[in-house]
Design goal:
The structure holds three protein chains of three kinds.
Chain A lengths: L2 H6 L4 H4 L1 H4 L1 H4 L5 H6 L2 H25 L11 H12 L9 H32 L1 H16 L2 H12 L4 H24 L3 H9 L4 H39 L4 H10 L3 H30 L4 H14 L3 H6 L8 H4 L10 H5 L5
Helix pairs in contact in A: 7-15, 8-9, 8-11, 8-13, 9-11, 10-11, 10-13, 11-13, 13-14, 13-15, 14-15
Chain B lengths: L1 E12 L6 E12 L3 E6 L5 H9 L6 E8 L2 E2 L2 E4 L11 H7 L6 H13 L15 H14 L4 E5 L7 H18 L2 E5 L3 H7 L2 E6 L3 E7 L11 H17 L6
Parallel strand pairs in B: 3-8, 3-9, 6-7, 7-8
Antiparallel strand pairs in B: 1-2, 1-4, 4-5, 9-10
Helix pairs in contact in B: 2-4, 3-4, 6-7
Chain C lengths: L11 H44 L8 H14 L2 H29 L3 H16 L2 H12 L4 H24 L3 H9 L4 H38 L5 H10 L3 H30 L1 H7 L1
The chains are: A mainly alpha, B alpha/beta, C mainly alpha.
The complex binds adenosine-5'-triphosphate (ATP) and magnesium ion.
Chain lengths: ~350, ~250, ~280
Amino acid sequence: MSATDTRRDTGPADTAAPDTVDELPRRRRSHPVVRVLRSSLAGRIAFPIVCLLVWLLAIRIVTSIWPFAVDVLPTPTQVFSFMWDELTGETLAPRNVYETFGISLRRLGIGMAIAMAIGTVIGLGMGLSKRVNAFFNDWVVAILAMPNLAWALFCSLAFGFGDVGPIVTVVLTGIPFVIINVREGVRNAPTDLYDMARAFGVSRADTIRHVLLPSLMPFMFAAARYAFALGWKGLVVAEVFGGEDGAGWTIKFWYDAHRAYGVIGYALLFVVFALLFEKFLFDRLSGYFFRWRPEVNAADVVEQRFDAPGVATATATADSGNGTHATTTGPKPERGAGGDETRRSHDG
Amino acid sequence: MAEITVRNLHKEFGVGADKIVALDDVNLDISGHVFVSIVGASGCGKSTLLNILSGIETPSHGQVQITEDGRPAAKGYVFQAARLLPWRTVMDNLLFVQKDRSEQTRARCQRYLDMVQLGDKGRKYPGELSGGMQQRVGIARAFSTEPDVLFMDEPFSHLDAITARSLRAELQNMWQETRKTVIFVTHDVGEAVELSNRILVFAKGGHLADDIDMPLPFPRDVADPEVAVAKANVFRTFEQIGALAVS
Amino acid sequence: MATAVASPPTSAPPRTSEEERVRAARRRDRINAVAWRLAGYAFFLGLWEFASGRLMDERLLPGPVDVLRTFGELWASGKVPGAFADTLTRIGIGFAIAFVVGAAIGILMQNRLLNGFFRDAVTIGVTTPGLIWALITAIIFGNRPWGPLIAIVLTTFALISVNVAEGIKALPKDLIDMAKSFGVGVVRRNRQIVIPHLAPYIFTGVRFGFSIAWKVTVLTEVFSSSSGIGFEMRTASQLFRLPEFLTWILAFYVFALLLEKVVLEVIERRFFAWRDTIKS
Ligand SMILES: Nc1ncnc2c1ncn2[C@@H]1O[C@H](COP(=O)(O)OP(=O)(O)OP(=O)(O)O)[C@@H](O)[C@H]1O
Ligand SMILES: [Mg+2]
């Protein structure tokens, strides 16, 4: 699409949100400072500030006008000094934040590895055989729709306190995503490439190694991403109900101690933790694994250009974000694997 | 010398009401270092024939035999879309179809990459190349196995006219140099007349309708009156068979 | 394959028999699939029944039969409809607010500045476990009714936003341009192109949103509520009646699954049938 096109018609916006976007092209030749102020980077910086202001305002309202609206409302200072203490290793909880997250991460890692192993086998079977698919299908859907609360409770009852319960919960929450993605990967097998290998008389082992496995990779990766995001949520619930340590247990510790600032501070640590993984680990890994796929980056660029109201604005904003839409939404299916089922990912 | 023998070849897809006959009683003998083009309307079974000859598909019945001096012949295939492994570099794509990975083999692959003028692109991924370059990699891959028989299924139909033209010239040179047997499927009668010794015309329903010899010397110039006459003759045959109807 | 079909028996009479053979083969396939599916049910239900009482104490893991019986008892006690109604009301209100908020954010995100502003909000909404919101709202609001509502909104709005934003981004510009070139007015354009285009996206958002909303609702009720499924679960666990506890959640799970899989999917298929035809 050409620049003139974009300028003439701001596309979706003119029907959906007329006054927010339509005015942008008219001001395209505005001062650079104005342009930066209107950029998405500015919005991004504004977000935490606005949140903080709303928070302070809420405290104001609670203390002066409406005192019975809440039980407690901690101040930002309380929360941030709590977080600072945690991050420097001073804590009233039995373990500091690094040990705590370390414990949880280990459980998550073990659970994910098991889920990936079993899920891959079942997914391969379901993709290759209609009968195996008929055998498992409804149960995969049923397990997928099960609230992790149920798993967490069941596992804490079944396995008592310790590592086993949380790990099994991670396996059970993660496994349907792995199965569905692998099945989708098998169903989308690149038959043209198999035919090619056949025409050249390539051996079976080589075909598996160079065609089948690489073609499954994007699906496996999407599976890992979902299993991670969902397994993490399941793990937290499991640790709350059946743990004696770990991140979930610790936030429950602060909850039971009635330290609201502790709960909120810990929740913010959760957010930081998840973002670190999502943005750094998975985006890096994805870049490494799929370096052969230049079109991914190309697509992102195109998307971003489409995002931008005008070409000038696009270049002016030094918003280096790979944070296009798809990335922001957390776990992203590398190739739209699993469609419906997989996207039903973000359960409580 | 490569020998291709096809006897009573019949191929159908599907069963019952949605049965499709793709090839109907095809008989064919090809031998020696010839460049054979197969032309015909869309859906008349050209790709199916190539897939059977190359072993991708099996015939419903009938026999196919491809030998080189009595032993089974080595085959190469250039597809309509390049069909490269997107997750392997250009060089690894060539190595993927080789029998071994020795230094010698690598050198040979490099030589064929040079031949299609992509000697410096060995470390690139296919996604980083243009469509024409990818197709050239596909050609280099097919030649790099040094096959006795080379199958090509509309290798230039996705490309723009200029790229296609230069690739045709390149192909012609490579064929002259290596003297393989080439079976070349195309929609483009001009292309067939320019490149081949022999043109097989297929009609709807998968019959082999005509078999035309093209004895003119290479390289052929489209502007040459003799070539133009030959082309007009092939077109006339087409009209008689009715093969052009949906082309 | 070549040997199997070596003789060509295709004259007029065998052809009908061949068609019959094909139909028979298809029927066999269908029966096979059903048989395997039933085998799957038998296997998993059997495993469950076997595990209860043998691998694990019955009081901890009631089997399917026990669950059904417990449900019968709960139903007889008359608590079930009230608890369901309370939870469903909460889901309804919370989800309605989440929908409005989420859709508004999805629309606002078309603007670059606001996109930056809400981007992190959406990421946080998607990645933060619902349990965290449940705990935060529980500790701040105690037993007040808007605690669970806020938790529901915070966990579901992002999903709606994402779907709405995606739908807007994929608006068929070519069709809109076409309509403009024919001088079709804004209102007609919205009615004929924009809304039909967005509806499936929004519906998908609703479907996913619901599947999350009900889970979070139950979870928040466990921590801070004096009615509903979650509250009943908390009561049961405090009395150490574990089969009752599991039965509550399983009952609501089955109910939600039916709503989601049957009702919502039927609606989707009914109203958005044109989508499938385009896809295929
Ligand atoms: N795998 C298949 N399953 C079912 N039908 C097939 C299959 N492959 C080919 N056919 C059918 O066989 C017939 C011949 O197909 P084929 O691909 O050989 O045509 P073609 O001559 O190569 O056409 P084109 O010039 O368009 O490539 C077509 O009617 C096609 O629909
Ligand atoms: Mg073809």
